[in-house]
């Protein structure tokens, strides 16, 4: 009753203060006072045509940005994107980000699975980002209608299925890659893979299953040797890291609780190339092979897997051509990455059939598309060759239209050339050239560098070998993260750079104006290879190679610092500490 009294008094004061302006039609004043409270509402039934005041302006619609994938590329893009500028939607069947370099550690319990994952929604909430997330899988990209078709695994619509469609203005494809079996028979049916957290958990259970099965009283010694033979197919970083983790798990933990069968355990690496870790420095590859042989790990290089059955792996010696049957208890396939079906379908749409990854330009935009960008393992940057634009470059540099170039004219656009064509700097470095004069002199001779003048043919001759240094970026987490950060920065500056371009001169086509952005440039920060026994190898910038126990501690510090949140950082470090004190858990959960 008290509330009604005060509400009525307030309403009375409101009515006393209201004055209807001249020329305004009758207004409706509505006063409602209920026993439990009072509500006052005033509504003007019409607005005079000559009423003063600025008209309301329509708020411009935000551009729709759809991100496919929550891996390294997609997460890096979302973390650095100014989401207030766009209407952002994220679509992925995985509602978390996984720190994939630690997946080998998850396979053996060195690190728990939940310690290396961070929920995507939690990442958005912590950074106050207005982002919509849909847990679904994209199965078709329609570049013509600028829409993606998705299928939810957690719910259905009124039609009885989980299909829905999301349109976009800009699409960022960061779907990663899948395993590549090279159509080897039996691989999909009999081998484990190591691409997802679920794969690591399956491997952990299978390892323990092998030991429990070999411990049964009705198993012969021959069967025990077969069951406890672990074969890793692929000697790249993933295969080597898993082999090292498995060896530590066996030696430090399992042989202590399975003493009766420890003599039957064997680990074998099968590598098609001549060396394992062939993407690393030769010194690291030799160190890894020597250490594995010393640890009792059999390293078979120069062998190609022909077929995998339930009991045997058929391999072929590439040097002799002979075939060998290898009995095994568990096989892990880590021999390369392949293209996802949705990416293959999209490549067929945009005229990129028979490729292994989406071709993008140096600004990460998918070629022959509008508003579609691709980052990470599902894409490959097609670096434009300088010889394709050599005539335009000559024309732009020849400001006086003399038909020749002086050294100064070339130097004036040298920075733009090096930004647009990074192979120029790489070539000069490989040939130990100090400046552009050395490069031009290689085509016209060493005499009179200061007064050097070249025509179009001499200019072509000087640069004809530069494109031999065109490099492709590797399919690594480091590359995907840098691409995501770069693309987010471009989106954040898109409006500004349209008015104030930051990129180099356009040296293709007609040339003249500037690109809006500088092209993406990958900066290699080094790579690690844990080799077990608290030893690791590192290849760092500046041709610095480090191997041994100290490098393992460097690996610990770097991987702890690279975690995406303090929560996962604390969990990973605590898992490492727990393993040092108590060992790895051998429970089959």
SSE blueprint and pairings:
Blueprint: H1 2-17, E1 28-34, E2 37-43, E3 63-68, H2 72-80, E4 86-92, E5 96-98, H3 103-107, E6 117-119, H4 120-126, E7 131-142, E8 147-152, E9 163-167, E10 170-173, E11 178-179, H5 187-190, H6 197-214, H7 221-227, E12 229-233, H8 237-257, E13 266-271, H9 282-294, E14 298-301, E15 303-308, E16 312-317, E17 323-327, E18 330-333, E19 337-338, H10 341-349, E20 358-360, E21 372-374, E22 379-381, H11 390-397, E23 405-406, H12 407-412, H13 414-420, H14 423-430, H15 436-444, E24 453-454, H16 456-463, H17 477-492, H18 494-499, E25 527-532, E26 535-540, E27 544-548, H19 549-561, H20 566-582
Parallel strand pairs: 3-4, 3-10, 4-7, 10-21, 12-13, 12-18, 13-14, 20-22
Antiparallel strand pairs: 1-2, 5-6, 7-8, 8-9, 11-19, 15-16, 16-17, 23-24, 25-26, 26-27
Helix pairs in contact: 2-17, 6-7, 15-16
Description:
The protein has 589 residues and is an alpha/beta fold. It is built from 20 helices and 27 strands. Strand 12, helix 8 (237-257) and strand 13 form a beta-alpha-beta unit. The chain is globular, with a radius of gyration of 32 Å. It starts with a helix and ends in a 7-residue tail after the last helix. Residues 1-51 have low confidence and may be disordered.
- Strand proportion: 15-25%
Kindly state the number of beta strands.
27
Could you list the spans in which at least 5 consecutive residues all have pLDDT below 50? 1-51
Shape: globular
Report the structural category.
alpha/beta
Q: Strand order of the main beta sheet, please?
A: 9-8-7-4-3-10-21
Distance between the termini: 63 Å
Radius of gyration, in angstroms, nearest whole number:
32 Å
Largest sheet: 7 strands, mixed
Name the average pLDDT: 88
Could you state the oligomeric state of the chains shown?
A: single chain
GO cellular component, one term: mitochondrial inner membrane
Family: Belongs to the NADH dehydrogenase family.
EC number: 1.6.5.9
Pfam families: NDH2_C (PF22366), Pyr_redox_2 (PF07992)
